[in-house]
Design goal:
The protein has four domains: about 1-30 and about 290-340, no CATH class; about 40-285, PAS domain (Beta-Lactamase, 2-Layer Sandwich), CATH 3.30.450.20; about 365-450, Signal transduction histidine kinase, dimerisation/phosphotransfer (DHp) domain (Helix Hairpins, Orthogonal Bundle), CATH 1.10.287; about 450-615, 2-Layer Sandwich (Heat Shock Protein 90), CATH 3.30.565. Helix content is about 50%, strand content about 20%. It contains 14 helices and 18 strands. The strands form four sheets. Strands 3-2-1-6-5-4 form a six-stranded antiparallel β-sheet, with helices on both faces. Strands 8-7-11-10-9 form a five-stranded antiparallel β-sheet, sandwiched between helices. Helix 8 (about 280-330) packs parallel to helix 9, helix 9 (about 345-410) packs antiparallel against helix 10 and helix 10 crosses helix 14. The chain has helices at about 5-70, 75-80, 80-95, 135-145, 185-200, 225-230, 235-240, 280-330, 345-410, 415-445, 460-470, 470-475, 495-510, 580-590, and strands at about 100-105, 110-115, 120-125, 150-155, 160-175, 175-185, 200-205, 210-215, 245-255, 255-265, 270-280, 455, 480-485, 490-495, 520-525, 530-540, 595-600, 610-615. Strand 5 and strand 6 (about 175-185) form a beta hairpin. With about 625 residues, the protein is an alpha+beta fold. The longest helix has about 70 residues, at about 5-70. The protein is rod-shaped and about 205 Å long. The structure holds adenosine-5'-diphosphate.
């Protein structure tokens, strides 16, 4: 995962979590406060309904008092003068705008009964209303107390087929109970009034929990509609016992949601039943939903804002890192002119500047190294040219010298003193010729002019030549020369003269760096898998320091002090121009092979020895 995503993903996730939590918290706070407002409104509406009933009661009692204390009414009631009673009561009813008036005598017989009809006219039904059987009337009659407190109840008037709220008051005559007066107001009047004052819909329940009236469906609330809103007796009891505590409850009606709260309905000492106030839930739901949507919108917009800002910040942070990565990749690919291009002063800017400074240093060093390399290459070229020129220039006088030395040697046959001199001269010129030949070989190798001329070559016979060349050394230095596997080697397709030179130099070195009495072993074997021939020249000599092992194949490289070298090419630690191994490597590479050395180290006491390995392809390639 790229660093950009590593930075942005947790940031996005956090933003999302914060936004969702924010929306949740804010909307729940809003809906809680709306819910609280609804509950308060329900409480308020409930209080209004209770107050309305109290007001209604006061007006009933006032009216009933006027009726009860109307002069002559109690007397007419006592005397059973129904006509007189009606003559007094009827004008009172219309004057006081009483909707239902009933006067009951002490014996519990209804002596006067009148109702106001919907059209405003008063009507005296010929049949008794049956109101005298009401418990509140019976209890007043039973108490037989003219001063008894008024009673009230919600009653269904079977004659009018309407519910009424009745208040009952004792009628007094000479400090005695003469009867009871009942003043009633129909629900048709009460219900709209309750609704208009409480600003809520209302349901009234009787004492069994049955819904008896509601404003919910206007006037069209029929029996079944009401039944749907009735509550069980248990529920009713709970409401009554809650002592005015509102129990909120939600319901759906004609695809609109409402919240409902019930309270007991109590006026004076009488429990009339219970009522419920109802408010539409749109009050909570709609504003809640609207505000939730608003908050979601707000938080989404804020989230996008945060993401955009975050993206911008991450770009500011990460782009310099990307620039650093791209610059380092370009530099690794070799473009040292590349710079990061970051110019900020923060930590990344410091890092980028340091990186640029490092690259500039590197570029400068590389340039210097390249220059030094060029100088070295030029010097090497000059050295090679010198070797070439020197070798060529030395060759002609050397031929002359050896010719004359030969002549001198012939003439000095009978003069022993002169013969010693001529022998010395001969040996010297041969040695010089060898050195000059080596110089010529190395200049050919340097100028890539050494060409192998492959032919069928027998390593066994080449080795015989080498062994013979050093015959004097074996005897003189008491060295053992051992060969293994050479005679079994197949013919190899290679340049026999070059192979001779190769073995000549390796064996000569082995002789030079092995003390008298040592052993030089030459092994040969075919490495089938690689189609190669392996030749190893191992000695029991002084060995080679590990740190010199990779350098001795360079021309003129010699370990130790040149001055300390003894003269003579096969003497122990005999001197040499330092070209042998460079020529050996040139020859091996001209055949497409490899050469290397292994030695535990240099030690003239313990004589760890050295082993030179040569690998030549069986079919030597012609390498230019
Ligand atoms: P030189 O003319 O000095 O022998 P070479 O190129 O043949 O030059 O060898 C380079 C150096 O490698 C020698 O000076 C010597 O120190 C080391 N060297 C080569 N062969 C051996 C060997 N068999 N044992 C120890 N040292 C060796």
């Amino acid at each position: 995962m790229s660093i950009r995503f590593k930075v942005i993903l947790p940031y996005l996730l956090l933003t999302l979590i914060v936004a969702v939590t924010g929306v949740y918290v804010v909307t729940s706070l809003v809906s809680n406060s709306l819910q609280e407002r609804l509950t308060n409104q329900l409480l308020e509406a409930g209080r209004m309904v209770s107050d309305d009933f109290a007001r209604q009661e006061i007006s009933h009692i006032e009216t009933a008092r006027i009726v009860a204390y109307t002069t002559g009414l109690a007397e007419a009631l006592e005397a059973g003068d129904r006509a007189g009673l009606a003559g007094l009561a009827q004008p009172l009813a219309s004057g006081l705008d009483i909707e239902s008036l009933s006067v009951i005598d002490r014996q519990g017989v209804e002596s006067f009964y009148l109702v106001k009809l919907a059209d405003g006219n008063y009507f005296v039904p010929g049949v008794p209303s049956g109101l005298e059987a009401m418990p509140i009337v019976q209890s007043l009659l039973l108490a037989d107390n003219a001063q008894a407190a008024p009673r009230r109840a919600l009653v269904y008037n079977a004659v009018i087929k309407k519910y009424y709220y009745y208040s009952a008051l004792p009628i007094e005559l000479n400090n005695r109970l003469a009867g009871v007066v009942l003043v009633g107001t129909s629900f048709d009047t009460i219900m709209p009034y309750l609704k208009s004052t409480s600003l809520a819909d209302v349901i009234l329940y009787d004492e069994s929990g049955r819904a008896i009236a509601t404003t919910l469906a206007g006037q069209s609330a029929d029996e079944s509609f009401l039944t749907a809103f009735s509550i069980s007796e248990d529920e009713y009891r709970q409401v009554v016992e809650s002592k005015g505590n509102i129990a909120g409850e939600n319901f759906e009606l004609e695809s609109r949601w409402y919240s409902l709260a019930r309270s007991p309905l109590q006026v004076g000492g009488d429990r009339l039943g219970a009522f419920a106030v109802i408010l539409p839930l749109d009050f909570v739901l709609q504003p809640g939903a609207v505000s939730r949507n608003n908050y979601i919108l707000l938080f989404t917009a804020a989230m996008f804002g945060v993401i955009v800002i975050g993206y911008g910040i991450s770009r500011l942070l990460i782009n310099p890192i990307y620039a650093l990565v791209r610059a380092s990749q370009a530099i690794t690919a070799g473009d040292l002119t590349r710079r990061t291009g970051v110019n900020s002063s923060d930590e990344i800017g410091v890092l980028a500047n340091t990186f640029d400074a490092m690259t500039a240093n590197l570029q400068q060093r590389t340039l210097e190294l390249e220059r030094a390399n060029q100088t070295l290459a030029q010097m090497d070229k000059t050295k090679s040219s010198f070797i070439q020129v020197a070798a060529h220039e030395l060759r002609t006088p050397l031929t002359l010298l050896s010719g004359y030395t030969q002549l001198l040697d012939n003439k000095a046959k009978n003069n022993p003193d002169l013969q010693t001199i001529s022998k010395g001269l001969l040996e010297g010129s041969v040695r010089m010729q060898e050195v000059v030949n080596s110089m010529l070989d190395i200049s050919r190798i340097d100028s890539k002019m050494l060409k192998a001329l492959p032919d069928k070559a027998s390593l066994a016979s080449i080795l015989q030549r080498v062994e013979k060349t050093f015959q004097a050394a074996w005897d003189e230095r008491k060295l053992k020369f051992v060969t293994t596997g050479i005679s079994e080697l197949p013919l190899i397709y290679a340049d026999p003269d070059l192979l001779y030179k190769l073995l000549y130099h390796l064996v000569m070195n082995a002789i030079k760096y092995t003390p008298d009495g040592g052993t030089i072993t030459l092994r040969g074997e075919v490495i089938e898998d690689d189609h190669e021939i392996s030749l190893t020249v191992e000695d029991t000599g002084i060995g080679i320091d590990l740190e010199h092992q990779h350098l001795i194949f360079e021309k003129f490289y010699q370990t130790g002090e040149v001055q300390l070298h003894s003269s003579g090419r096969t003497k122990f630690k005999g001197g040499g121009p330092g070209l042998g191994l460079a020529i050996a490597r040139g020859i091996v590479e001209a055949h497409g092979g490899r050469i290397w050395v292994e030695s535990p180290g240099y030690n003239e006491e313990t004589l760890p020895g050295s082993c030179f390995y040569v690998r030549l392809p069986l079919e030597a390639k012609r390498v230019a």
